[in-house]
Amino acid sequence: MFMKKLFICCIIINILLFFVAFLEGLYIIKYNKQIVYLHENKPNVEQDNLQVSKDMKYPIDIELENCCAKNFMTAGMNECTKKAIRDLNKEILITEKQIKSKLNSEQWQLYKKSDNAWKNYFECEKDFLNNSIGILDGDIHTTFVMGYLYELAKTRAINLKSYTNELNEE
Asked: What is the pTM of this model?
């Protein structure tokens, strides 16, 4: 019985360490007013207006880290990640309104076509992940799925913010 409890504790600690390492391993590049995330092992450079800093984090990343620190069990981390995805979706809707205000009706229709394709991609990716990685033995795989979905949503939010920055340059 003791060995079983010890084994479970080791798994939980490994999950927590993996998740923290995953979140800590992100770098942010500020290029002009755009924010782009890169994974670890990218050099710290300063060229022209390109600055890389590990200290800067996307605000929802910080909220997610804090939530996971309080809810370190698999179910808790998954709930934290679901909330973070919901927050990203709210941010996407706000940014979408800003984009709409800068586009004419033809451009807006093209954006909506692109946005619908992205939403379809996200749903297909979610179905794939849930029905492949998510069904593997071990709860950790559900956490991996949530992490992948979070990264997809975050990438969409960052890209839309970049589009808004470009449209505001006019």
From this structure: 0.67
